[in-house]
Amino acid sequence: MTQDELFKVLVAHCKEYGFIFPSSEIYDGLAAVYDYGQMGVELKNNIKAYWWNAMTRLNENIVGIDSCIFMHPRIWEASGHVGAFNDPLIDNKDSKKRYRADVLIEDFLCKIEEKINKEVAKGRKKFGDSFDEVQFRATNPNVLREQKKYDEVHNRYVAAEKANDLAEYKNIIVDNGIVCPISGTCNWTDVRQFNLMFSTSMGSTSEGANIIYLRPETAQGIFVNYLNVQKTGRMKLPFGIAQIGKAFRNEIVARQFIFRMREFEQMEMQFFIKPGTELEWFRKWKETRMKWHVNLGMGAENYRFHDHEKLAHYANAATDVEFQFPFGFKELEGIHSRTDFDLGNHQKFSGKKIQYFDPETGESYVPYVIETSIGVDRMVLAVLSHSYKEEKLENGETRVVLGIPAPLAPVKAAVLPLLKNNEDLVNLAQSIMDDLKYDFNCQYDEKDSIGKRYRRQDAIGTPFCITVDHDSLQDNCVTVRERDTMTQKRVPIAELRSIIDKEVNMNNLLRNLK
Ligand code: ATP
Q1: Which residue of 218, 259, 260 sits with most ligand 1 atoms within 8 Å of its CB, as the best mutation to test the pocket?
Q2: 400 C-alpha to center of ligand 1: Å?
Q3: Atom of ligand 1 at shortest distance to CA of 320?
Q4: Ligand 1 centre distance from Cα of residue 371 (Å)
Q5: Is the CB of 249 under 6 A from ligand 1?
Q6: Per DSSP, what are the bridge partners of residue 323?
Q7: Residue 140 Cα to ligand 1 middle (Å)
């Protein structure tokens, strides 16, 4: 199966098993808006708990808040979003489809990279153990030709980005024959800026109404509460404020399922520090955040940093944590050193003094900030796309299994009486269910054969299936079947809680972070 096909199958699987539905589906949906179903919401909540606890419980100097989506409109002037939260927009005149010019160029670069990697893979296959990748890349004519093309386009792109040169974006697209995937033509409009903020009005009469923006990031809610939290929490630098909440962006192109949505959720943490220490903290947060990701066991090779070449005017360092999605390595999280830009601007625009008095040095200053910002939905997609597997079984059948890291799995255990019309089996299964449900999200299922029930649980990623059979009535033991290995073990009912807990308890995951 190609990665493209895998992605399509995954989207269908998410719908079929209650993870993610297109929003307003009975009205034919709403572009780039999705709802989470009964399984999706559990997975999402577990991801949020993993992040929230890693931030606020494991760090005594990080606290949480929950600020509103509606904020004073001046905030978005101070933050720069009214003036500069734009994407470069381009239309194809034949298909009438809209694209982000930067994304068209980046996708083109990715394709060249893929070609190079394919050549390298061919070389590796041909030369076997004696393969020297560095030498191959330096001498193979096909690789050299593609690399030259890559470097040329890349250098022009970086320069255009730095200079904010929209005409040059179009030139790059036209010069390289980048076509619209729908019409296949190179008949493009000029590139123009498009502001991504949604707006509405607040107030009962239209004259008195204020323009209100739906927040495009949660971070500003943290900045404008900096003084409140610092004072009421008697926080000393360095300290952080964490928040999970909805954000809204009128994305130009939103065709990658929950990767790019118009309504999404972010988990952001702003870490306030003394000016001059930012690069050291930036490095520490890069390390800490990568550890949080890799700790889930989805393969260190599936993550990489992408350091920004073009820095926003207020940032002095920025990187993305990229994950290998089915459509390639793409941003999952951003880590930014934002200097005193945000707090400084809010001080200026609000006229309120936002300073920290440093008891050690006796100075007052506007703190610097390191920000870590990750999309909940992109994390859900990372987990689901990595977990989805189609496995050939010994009996020739295929099973679809979601190998979701156990502490994140929506359902931790399924309790299955062997027969549904045997009162004793059903009663015992129900009593096991009643006992376990306080500790774990469990499902009781008595319909269909045991094999079919196992398949249903595999498809939603349940780590354990507990089967109650006739022997259970005599020996107080049940069969526990493990999702990934499909091994079955007979265990005493009294031990079920500790067996499940060992695998699914999120605290074990958190402990590994220390
Ligand atoms: P991109 O370059 O992919 O548009 P960005 O650099 O604009 O992302 P940030 O502003 O740094 O993203 O936002 C932080 C995080 O929020 C991103 O790393 C991503 O996980 C998430 N995010 C941003 N935009 C969206 C979106 N439209 N849908 C889902 N998640 C998003």
Answers
A1: 260
A2: 30
A3: 18
A4: 13
A5: yes
A6: 303, 330
A7: 37
Q: Rounded to an integer, what is the distance from CA 388 to the centroid of its chain? A: 16
Task: Please indicate whether residue 446, judged by its CB atom, sits closer than 6 Å to ligand 1.
Answer: no
**Alpha-carbon dihedral angle through residues 292, 295, 296, 300, given to the nearest 10 degrees:** 100
Cis peptide before 73 (omega within 30 of 0): no
85-89, 441-445, 452-456: least confidently modelled range:
85-89
Residue type, 324: Q
Phi and psi at residue 312, in whole multiples of 5°?
-60, 155
Rounded to the nearest angstrom, the distance between the alpha carbon of 328 and the centre of ligand 1 is 16
Pair 85, 195: CB distance under 8 Å: yes
**To which residue do tokens 């808006």 refer?**
33
Closest residue to atom 26 of ligand 1, CA basis: 260
Q: Alpha-carbon distance 322 to 212, whole Å?
A: 33
Confidence of residue 300 (pLDDT cuts 50, 70, 90): very high
pLDDT reading at 23 higher than 90: yes
What pLDDT is recorded for position 4? 81
Q: Measured in angstroms, how far is the CA atom of residue 249 from the centroid of ligand 1?
A: 9
Residue 139: CA atoms inside 13 Å, Cβ hemisphere, count?
7
Going by alpha carbons, the residue nearest to atom 1 of ligand 1 is 331
**Residue 207: pLDDT band by 50, 70, 90 thresholds?**
low
Measured CA angle at 275 (ends 273, 278), to 5 deg: 65
Q: How confident is the model at residue 162 (pLDDT cuts 50, 70, 90)?
A: confident
**Neighbouring C-alpha atoms within 13 Å toward the C-beta of 454:** 18
Q: Summarize pLDDT for 254-297 with one digit per residue, the tens.
A: 778 999 999 999 999 999 999 999 999 999 999 999 999 999 99
Q: How many residues comprise the chain?
A: 514
| 208 — pLDDT class (breaks 50, 70, 90) | low
Using DSSP's 3-state secondary structure scheme, residue 417 falls into strand
